[in-house]
Amino acid sequence: MSGSGLPADWDLEADVVVLGMGAAGCAAAIEAHDAGAQVLVLEKLAPEFAGGNTRVSGGAWFDNLAPERAAVYLNSLAGGFPLPQPVVQAWAHETARNTEWVEKTLGATTAAVGGAIGGTGPGMPAEFPELDGSDVYGGQIAVDGKLGSARLLHALHSTLASRRIEVRYSTPARSLVQDFSGTVLGVEAEAVDGATLRVRARRGVILATGGFEANADMVRDYLRFPQTLTWGSPYNTGDGHRMAQKAGADLWHMDNMMSIEGFAVPGYESGFYARFSYRKGFIYIDSDGKRCVDELPRTGHGNALIHGSYEHVPVRRLHAVFDEATRLSGPISPNGDMLAVGWNVLIEGYQWSPDNSAEVEKGWLRKAGTLEELAAELDVDPANLIRSVARYNAACAAGEDEQFGRRADTLDALGDGPYYAFTSAPMVAWSNGGPRRDEHCRVLDPFGATLGSLYAAGSVSSTYSWCKDGGMHIGDALAFGRIAGRHAATASTTGASR
């Protein structure tokens, strides 16, 4: 025994050890504490970066109007990738408690979010209104009714502090400690000074370590993208996934994700969100210079109905080509006063120029006087590019895009030069798959058995097997974070001395 009364090979102990402090980790820690457990949170990053994608997301959750209908909607969203019904039922009932929990437990003021890019105007409708159960979707709710600026995360972290829940920053978990039966006893982490820190978890370890979108190997293996480009935290490197796999966990829906249009620029680890919010005078061309997609399909959070089935969008590297009028109409990448989300906006503090001129000067947006010159810049066939623009402009004049079915109200023709372009790659906002878990968030092995006292919640193992609506990522993290915290707090004592 050590002088502190702990086993000689344990440096610390707690009833529940939570790894990560985004929405899921914080909710788990708060709920476990309020259920009477002693809680310790280990966070990989320093305070100014902590919180995973919750720090840089919109921070809103969907308004679940009726749990029974919510279960129907989730089953519809899952499509051909069905989920275990106990998980569906837990999700349906617990997400309906999110607003009350944020108000009563966090003490935050909440309100509905408007539908425009900055969170104003009519409320946000369901993104898949054609699916059974979509009537349950009551829009999105956020702290103060506003998207972004880490409002939800600040409320969560303030609640951790007010409850005096111990947090150790800059202390990444490296592996799970198990006994000979495979039961998880605790965690090995790396202390600030680089030393190994062995932490015993008497009742449970909760993985809330985020996704794997910043892990290039995992992105290639599971999402099938040859490159890695993240919109959120560049530190979401699949740590929890790998620890769980080493401990014997099974995996579910590892190919599911939410991707958005974005592009990389020198000096920034995460990408910039690309959104033509004002004039729509642009097309996407492939590496051969040909227009190849409907640039503005009606999408949900990462999926669109294309050719009769729901497909991930975007999934291709494309060149965006636009004209001078579109360049002058407004920033290609939204600023914080428009949409206060994304790593480069909130953490790096970058402010995109209103007319994109600064980014043209930096070379982030390519400029050419003619389409032939632009084709040379992009290394594409100039004849194909010229034909593509001419065919698109003809569609604009006719008011109908027979080639790809782009909506008539988005058909703004490209004018004369100069022309501009950037190369867009699928930018992964969230990965969704991870260690398979049950309705109590207990991690399962390939045969359906639990790994003792190991839990998972949030993007490390989100519920969504295919489609997901707005506010469902945060809604899922809050709901299953609470479930994991409650269950772990009341679990039988584990982690005997080694």
TrEMBL record:
InterPro entries hit by this protein: FAD-dep_OxRdtase_2_FAD-bd, FAD-oxidoreductase_2, FAD/NAD-bd_sf, Succ_DH/fumarate_Rdtase_cat_sf
Pfam families: FAD_binding_2 (PF00890)
Keywords: FAD, Flavoprotein, Oxidoreductase
Cofactors, names only: FAD
Every FAD-dependent oxidoreductase 2 FAD-binding domain range: 15-468
Keyword Ribonucleoprotein belongs to the record: no
GO biological process: steroid metabolic process
MF annotations from Gene Ontology: steroid dehydrogenase activity, acting on the CH-CH group of donors
The keyword Flavoprotein appears for this protein: yes
Name of this protein: FAD-dependent oxidoreductase
Species, as recorded: Nocardia speluncae
